[in-house]
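Annual report, structural modelling task.

Input specification for the flavin-adenine dinucleotide complex:
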Amino acid sequence: MTTRIFGSGIRRREDPRLITGRASYTDDIKLPGTLHAAILRSPYAHANIKAVDASGAAGQPGVVAVYTGEDTDGVLNGLPCAWLIPGSDLKTPAHPAIAKDKVRYVGDAVAVVVAESRYQAEDALEHIAVDYEPLDVVVSPKAAAQDGAPQLHEDVPNNIAFTWALAGGDTDAAFADAAVTVSDTITLPRLIANPMEPRSALAQWSAASGELTLWNTTQNPHIARFVTCVVTGVPEHKIRVIAPEVGGGFGSKIPFYADEAITAFCSMKLGVPVKWTETRSENYLITTQGRDHIEEVEMAATSDGVITGLRTTVYAGMGGYLSTAAPGVPTILHGLMYSGPYNIPNISGTVYGVFNNGAPVDAYRGAGRPEATMLLERMVDLVAAAVGQDPAEVRRKNLIPKFENGHDVATGITYDSGDYESALDSCLSAAGYEALRAEQAQARAEGRCVGVGVSSYVEICGLGPSQVAGAVGFQGGLWESAIIRFYPTGKANVMVGSSPHGQGEETTFAQIVAGELGVDVDDVEVIHGDTDTTPMGWGTYGSRTTAVSGAAITVAARKIKEKSRALAAHLLEAAPEDIEYEDGRFYVRGSPDQHKTIQDIALMANVAWNMPEGMEPGLEASAFYDPPNFTYPFGAHVAVVEVDPETGHIDLQRYVAVDDCGVQINPMIVEGQVHGGVVQGVGPALWEGAVYDDDGQLVTGSMLDYALPRADLLPDIEVSSNSTPSPHHPLGVKGIGEAGTIASTPTVYNAVMDALRPLGVTRVDMPLTPEKVWRAINDARNGG
Amino acid sequence: MTVPVEITINGKACAGDVEERQLLVHFIRENAGLTGTKVGCDTSQCGTCTVQLDGVSAKACTVLTVQASGSSVTTIEGISDGVDLHPLQEAFWNNHGLQCGFCTPGMIMAANELLRNNPSPTREEIRHGLEGNICRCTGYQNIVSAVEDAAKAMGGR
Amino acid sequence: MFPAQITYHRAGSVAEAVQLLSSNEGAKLLAGGHSLLPLMKLRLAAPAVLVDIGRIEALKGVSASGGGITIGALTTHAEIASSDLVKQHAPVLAEAAALVGDPAVRNRGTIGGSVSHADPASDQPTVLTALGATFNVTGQGGDRSIAAGDFATGLLENALEENEVLTSISVPSVPSGAGSAYVKFPHPASRYAVVGAAAVVAVSGGTCSSASVVVGGVETTPARASSVEAALAGSDLGDAALDAAAAAVGGDLNGDPMGDVFASAEYRRAMAAVYVRRALGAAASRAG
Ligand SMILES: Cc1cc2nc3c(=O)[nH]c(=O)nc-3n(C[C@H](O)[C@H](O)[C@H](O)COP(=O)(O)OP(=O)(O)OC[C@H]3O[C@@H](n4cnc5c(N)ncnc54)[C@H](O)[C@@H]3O)c2cc1C
Ligand code: FES
Ligand code: FES
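The model returned the following structure:
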């Protein structure tokens, strides 16, 4: 039955082209006459540029052009920051595409060579002489905010780009009255997103028509067009941005980068197509990173473990410049989630966004919520230890009771629906929690370091009501639109403004239409990723594509259904109110034989031989969907680890996840998102962390040093789910793209701390590399 | 300086004049126009460029084109006959063994080598066999299931 | 990802390779390319001339030779890992070969390239030193042999003359009744050894008659653990004896220490004791 397709784990229609190597990613696209760009990057983290002499490069073999900041100055506008948090005294210093006077991180662009081949362009870079005057460097976001720290931007005292504060309840009173207070400083290192496809841009300028086409590894082609217009000055309607196949993004392909602007600039100067593709080493230096938080956190509780207050001071590194959405990440997407799934009546927090000499920081899978969940879940474990209770029990007693339609928390937001205790119960029972604790006691008796970690989480997804976006300073809307167009043969195209890049929406969106209109799923083709052929939309990030874009499709499909009903009534010579719909058929109530299928309707609407008075021909509907609220998926996870105390090695032995993302359109895809998400959160707990040295050099500058999760280091993730529909979403869906990443870092961290507790270890900074764990064990043994 | 090379790719002779420094992966992508083989890193770590070179898996980013002249290469485009999918391709599809698909060609080529050496691997052995290939999307689990499935389809137990 | 310009020669024989090396200043040999090409891709190495020895059949394969085996310099890690002759005469070499990098690396990387590159984080130099192997080289001045322990002379430096080619490695058989093991702490990103310990332990009449123990990754060249060997000799190879012997390794680590952001020199030294202990345990359990 076609309609049963909705909700079933059918295999993905995007796969055949991908598994056969026939898909075209940006770097796979070849245009005749394309030239290749290579960009000279600053080797210094902070320096004045005294002179750039590019003359040596100009005559090198194959070189067509060399440009420096002198050439782009006044031609390219600065890169804009698009999330201007109100009331935060936000500073937005200039961010030129090519630095002319000063560089602020290793990798800042200084010049570009365009040549016949990339090899030749790389050769020529070695012939550009730059005279740098090195300046003092600051890497830690907290150090950067202190008096006397090296200043990155003249007009930004203490490097503080913004200060954002949050207060709900009376936190000071809560702490004054608390029987128990716990505190810790949590460092969330910079993370390198590492989509397997490096970023790439291919620009083609047509002087004759004044049109610029940009193939780009972007998660949001419509935003990319908007910003390309701002930076290049080409009118928006003369710009076409195409996101072909995109090989993952995880947030790092949201921002608009200098490289795209430079590539477009070169094509406009030379009148031929120009391509730039980053190397992985470049990606590590210049593509936006995630996290970089130093979080000073305190929690207040009663002697029975009931949480009464939370207080934070957060230093969030921004890197050398403010990236496109950077200010929103440690504020709106972070601080507003401080209540988590718990009743915490009193919450206050201050977040400093701080410039430091590293790559710009922006959204990375979870964006703000992993940082919030980490601090909360760490604090809850510390409270449990302080009051001598089981961490699962402490969570249970603080969880917000089940609610179906709205719950206000102290940070000022309203969760849509939640059943946090069921998620926790499901997870504990899937993990066999009591047995695990018994096994752990046994292991400890044998001298083995086994730990069990638990976390509960709720996250904010489905961004979001545009009115809220405006109120919090986001320089755009957050609605989505969709067009469904039926052709005479009963097949349909769905055009969407969002831009999936691995999440499988070509399949799930077709499932939505199949479910709503009773057509075969294979009769629906989803088109996305090209600003010329899709309606406006704000892109794929923040677990919003299914929640918002999917809702737009649903609304459009329902419009199609209503028009079809009216046309069916006309054709069947009945009143519209007498027409019933079932499974793709419209029939006169009581006589199902008298019916028109959706295919009949599509044909009759398209030929328009017999339309009712006043009805337009065609069977097409478009919808703009602006969500009334965010969605709030949630869940609970458990991890089991064993630590080798001799070496500090951690063996992740089990991982159990229960997630509740509301209604599931395709459970197979949901599960895949959980697998990938969990592993991406395990990474920073155990292995991942970008390290800059005191000179601002990236020490973990390649895949040789930055440890990404590998197949042989992981167990199978045990996944199951509950379903609490979102009350405000037309399908009841919430979003699942980021959940795993949000939950798994604290779950694994807590498990390791649980394992180490008998040894007297109370804290270790992430990532929990063997040496750090080994040192902590030794320090504890030596009474440190 | 360019030199003439000839490499048999997917059964077809591909000749060209290339710079001696050119990497095989660039010959495959640029000269032969087969872009299924990807470049995901520059330190030979990620495995997205994995092909079969003279019958065994190799990272095409860590071989010079001139080194491979006279050799034969199979890429993702060449492992099935173009009509029916290879059992590994079918299994990756059935098991949702890919999301963005960028690692997939290399993964399938690496898995092919694994099954050639060990037709009935355990999940643990599959995880080890894929240690040279990074996937950032799937968490590997469905890839492991896909390889397990393909092993069965290909007659292993 | 875009190496600098090179001139490439494919050598048809060892003699031709020696000749090409002699006539081209700064020329480098190219074997499997899995150490050299990664450096060239990042332009951390830019040799003007490459002499590819990769197709010289005479340099490939494993053969039995009086009291041991001879392994051609071009024999790949994969071939060594699966070679019956290696498994029979020097099983620890096969054990270590299977731990090198990943399957594609093992298919291309060669034992000759591995030892010539003299990277302290690699596996086989440690094992070959423990096995007391001999490296056979050919150059303009003729043939000579170099003991494994003398081959690496520093970080990425070896004892070869500019025009010399390592042709084969002679490995004496592990004596019957002896046990051998290689235990590796792989770097989670690079897969290279942070610390690797190789041990060969011979037993006669219930006590240890001789031991050879070498640690890699801790210093710029493989470090022979003489104090550990001395402590083992004559011992009963029981847990207490192994604990005590392994603990003595600190006294053997006096060379230039290795250390990085992932594992400091101090940590590597501490891990040397742990990994030596584990290698001894495994070797002892296989002895007899
Ligand atoms: C992703 C990756 C992971 C790896 N992981 C590991 C690991 O875990 N453990 C490990 O030990 N190694 C590891 N390696 C290195 C691998 O083992 C290399 O193959 C090996 O170190 C070098 O062998 P090659 O044949 O590739 O040498 P090449 O790269 O061709 O040469 C290396 C150097 O040796 C010289 N040379 C080569 N052959 C000779 C010869 N016959 N005579 C004289 N000089 C010669 C060359 O001129 C060059 O300077 C890894 C490599 C990669 C790419
Ligand atoms: S491109 Fe990453 S291993 Fe070849
Ligand atoms: S599917 Fe995206 S990297 Fe593997």
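Residues B 39-41, 44-49, 59, 61 surround FE2/S2 (inorganic) cluster (ligand 2) (CB under 6 Å).
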